[in-house]
Design brief:
Elements (H helix, E strand, L loop, with lengths): L10 E2 L9 H13 L7 E3 L2 E3 L10 H10 L3 H5 L1 H16 L5 E5 L5 H9 L9 E5 L19 H8 L6 E5 L14 E6 L4 H11 L3 E9 L8 H13 L5 E2 L5 E4 L1
Parallel strand pairs: 1-2, 4-5, 4-7, 5-6, 7-8
Antiparallel strand pairs: 2-3, 8-10, 9-10
Helix pairs in contact: 2-5, 4-5, 7-8
The chain binds S-adenosylmethionine (SAM).
């Protein structure tokens, strides 16, 4: 029996989507937390759990990278999602799954930057391909996010300026993938908030994923994006796969 097991930690960030009365919701969560004897509380990102190990909070390399690069409550609340990504990307390196890393789309590059530090990606001998439109106009199907702007592309390039093997590409998925994309993929993160664009990326890139490569679909379990699930399920079923819906709202496939 482990005698030096770490004490339970909590991770609580008041960031929840789809709440009607934020103040009533927050007090209800706080009242529930007050009744928890065990610790190990996670609250945020539409997840509320307790009595959990929350292993990521005890992974010091991960926590250092996370704290270095996360700078707002919405990102802070997604720690479990980012740890899931870290696990999926890390296994590609430790299990020698052939190929490069892909993220459609990267937005501010936060999760990719955390993964890059955590995995010492600069020394990995692989390439990491990041895509995004970086801007928003009314013709775009996706939501406008706070950081979208005409300078976001340069900001994200700067964020990875110390890593020659991370390639930040501005363009529309899937069209841009015909110009820049790897032949073999060891890890892929798809997070486009848009069913048509996600299906376009999957139709082109899923075939290029190596056996054993992990695919994370960020929006798969979220009701607000269920059109993506409805489009993706038949695609994967036809290939003999079933997406695992995770409590974080992500979907996971190991090829
Ligand atoms: C939720 S954000 C991605 C967050 C990022 N994966 C992370 O972990 O921090 C979704 C992004 O998808 C981008 N996007 C949506 N449709 C796109 C398309 N067809 N091509 C390229 N980027 C797209 C948006 O510009 C937005 O920045």
């Amino acid at each position: 029996m482990a005698t030096n097991a770490p004490l339970p930690k909590n991770h609580m960030v008041n960031s929840f989507f789809g709440v009607r009365d934020r103040s009533a919701f927050t007090s209800a969560i706080q009242s529930a937390i007050n009744e928890i004897a065990s610790g190990g509380v996670f609250a945020g990102d539409n997840l509320f759990t307790f009595g959990r190990n929350l292993s990521f909070l005890h992974d010091s390399a991960f926590m250092e990278a996370f704290e270095r690069h996360v700078d707002n409550p919405i990102e802070k609340a997604t720690i479990w999602r980012i740890y899931l990504l870290s696990w999926a990307a890390r296994r590609a390196l430790t299990l020698n799954v052939p190929g490069d890393f892909v993220e459609c789309a990267c937005y501010r590059g936060t999760s990719a930057r955390i993964l890059s530090d955590y995995l010492d990606f600069g020394a990995s001998g692989r390439n990491y391909y990041l895509y995004d439109l970086f801007e928003h106009d009314e013709t775009n199907a996706h939501l406008r996010l706070e950081a979208h702007s005409s300078s976001l592309y340069e900001q994200v390039q700067q964020r990875f300026a110390d890593l020659d093997n991370v390639h930040v590409t501005r363009g529309k998925v899937p069209e841009i993938l015909h110009e820049v994309s790897p032949e073999k993929i060891a890890f892929m993160h798809i997070d486009l908030n848009n069913a048509e664009a996600e299906m376009g990326a999957l139709k082109l890139l899923f075939d290029r994923m190596s056996p054993g490569a992990a695919l994370v679909l960020d929006d798969y379990g979220w009701l607000a994006y269920r059109q993506q699930k409805f489009a993706e399920d038949p695609f994967f079923e036809a290939l003999g796969y079933q997406v695992l819906e995770l409590p974080t709202g992500q979907g996971l496939i190991i090829k």
